[in-house]
Amino acid sequence: MPDRYKRCGCYRNAQFRETPSATREGAALDHLINLTSRHRDEIMAHLLSLHADDRIERFTGSINDDSVRRYVTSIGFARDLLVGVRQGSGLVGLAHAAVDLERGDLVCEVGISVDRAARRRGVGKRLLLAAMAATRRFNVRRVTVLFRSSNTAMAALARSIGGHVERTGGDSCAVFDLRAGPQLPLQMIRDVQAGEFLLAIHPRERGRVLLVHGAGGDSYQWVPQLLPALWAAGYSVCAPTLPGHGKSSSPGLAHLGVLEACVTRNVEHFAPTLIVGHSLGGYLVQCHLQRQPARRALLLASVPPLVPTTQELGEMVAELQCEDSRAVAKLVLNRAPDIDVAAVARTPLTVLGGTRDRVIPMPWIRYTAGRYGVAPQFVNGGHRLMLGRAASQVMQAVSA
Q1: Residue 150: which of 19, 63, 54 has the closest Cα?
Q2: Do 299 and 375 contact (CB within 8 A), yes or no?
Q3: For residues 223 and 228, what is the distance between their CA atoms, to the nearest angstrom?
Q4: Could you tell me if 66 and 97 are in contact, meaning their C-beta atoms sit under 8 angstroms apart?
Q5: Which of helix, strand or coil describes residue 304?
Q6: Distance in angstroms (rounded) separating the CA atoms of residues 80 and 220
Q7: Is the backbone of residue 275 left (phi > 0), alpha (psi -120 to 50) or beta?
Q8: CA 278 to chain centre
Q9: Bridge partners for 349 per DSSP
Q10: How far, in Å, CA of 237 to CA of 225, rounded?
Q11: pLDDT (average), residues 325-332
């Protein structure tokens, strides 16, 4: 048992331990898996192994190995949606749905690749359908699939599931108009001082909410559910992407002082009435509140004010699914100071966690709430409480 949390009456219960399941050799060819940054090497190997003609089909042009490597390195796993098909120990099919913002709408460009040995088995269709389903959950309003005009099979597939195919010379584009979710006046702002952030200003705002993501995340993680819910409730929203995060992320840049400064600049720039911090973002919010009280703050599955010891941090990091998340968490928290609880307590706080969270388990949430003298709140969810059914319960806590 971790000593510091045991002394505080707060420690991990065995139910929060999880042994990663190994991939079975000879797994079914049509076994679809969601891919994260820990699959980056597999993605790289799959794309590099494509036949020269297939690589041209995938990227609608000839690119060399170095370009493929740069492409894989630039994938933003916190934002983009990736689905793969594995056979044995490697990927034989991949769908990469790259999410972006275009004139206020979330749009997505999907690229699909399938090994020649796995052709004519419906793998491409399954990948495209899985990618489309994922984009709908992300509230993407338009999906495009680029491919060579000579690829008549892809054109037929796109038409069969409702796509409109447009041809321009040697290249074609299948367009799917999803019109999923509410349309928001989202803007991506790049400011020298405040960095990169998503912004939605409500014309009749009842308040302003600043959303601070955790290790390995970015501003887009709030878009599927919590950001639209806040907008519908009358809030203006600002969601920054912290340094070292986002597309072409460099976790080595995510030093504690740099992250704290980013939060402070966004608070000064946006003047929120509520600050929400998720996971490591919750610790950063506490760091900020030590120096500058706010009208209200919500700590969402947050790192406690008593910073985890090396052993505790190792347990926490082991539960994170993303390599970038692990790298940032270790870099920031390895020698981070404990929080001045009395200073932070000047701000009215809500402390909320998930009943199935293995990263920040329930005892840690109870400990944090106890230190701040508030009652802990729990929703039925894992660690990413801004997604799924838990998001509506989080929204209730925001509106309380």
Answers
A1: 54
A2: no
A3: 7
A4: no
A5: coil
A6: 9
A7: beta
A8: 11
A9: 297
A10: 13
A11: 92
Please tell me whether the overall predicted TM-score, pTM, comes out greater than 0.70 for this model.
yes
Select from 32, 132, 135 the least CA-distant residue to 79: 135
The amino acid at residue 164 is H
pLDDT tens figures, 1-26? 344 444 343 333 323 222 233 333 33
Structure confidence at residue 117 (pLDDT): 82
CA distances from 124 to 60, 84, 170, 226 (A): 16, 10, 21, 32
CB count within 10 Å of CB 281 equals 26
d(CA 352, CA 383): 11
| Nearest one of 131, 126, 91, 92 to 111, comparing CA atoms | 131
Do 225 and 391 meet the contact criterion of CB atoms below 8 Å apart? yes
Residue 182 is predicted with a pLDDT of: 62
Q: Which helix (H) or strand (E) holds 175?
A: strand 171-177
Which phi and psi (to 5°) does residue 240 adopt?
-75, 155
Residue owning tokens 């030093």: 255
How far apart CA 266 and CA 198 sit, in angstroms, is: 11
- Between CA 211 and CA 140 the distance in angstroms is 20
State CA 239 to chain mean position distance.
12
pLDDT (tens digit per residue) in 340-383 = 999 999 999 999 999 999 999 999 999 999 999 999 999 999 99
Do the beta carbons of residue 214 and residue 291 sit within 8 Å? Answer: no
- CA dihedral (177, 181, 185, 189) positive or negative: negative
Annotate 217-257 with DSSP letters as a single string. Answer: --GGGGTTTHHHHHHHTTEEEEEEEPTT-STT--GGG--HH
Burial 111-150 (b: 16+ CB within 10 A, else e): bbbbbeebeeeebbbbbbbbbbebbbebbbbbbebbbbbe
Query: In this structure, what token pair is assigned to residue 240?
Result: 């920054």
